[in-house]
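U., I forgot to send this yesterday:
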Amino acid sequence: MDMLGKQSSHNPTAEPTISEQLVWYVNDMLCEEITVERLAEHFFLSASQFTRLFKEATGAEPWACITAKRLVRARELLQSGESAKRAAEVGSFNDYSVFYKAYVKHFGEKPSAFAKDAII
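Result:
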């Protein structure tokens, strides 16, 4: 399993590992209000156990991976014509300035570079 949640090259008929289940669940919860603690509770793990297993599966800390995936989703929305404000909302960024700073840091450009409607 890689950071983007793509299936690894192991036996596809085998039962999913706990690491795979962690990544799949995070992918399903991207648009929700989530915390590492809530994710860990779902699997009856401590936050540190969850973080360790998730990092083993993806190579990244849970929050870094969640943020990166949310930013990629926001960029897809911008490319399809959504406003930057809407992309931030769908990406579960409650504060536009936090979204803006994360987007610029991750992609090296402003969200408005793709947005047809740059008015926020």
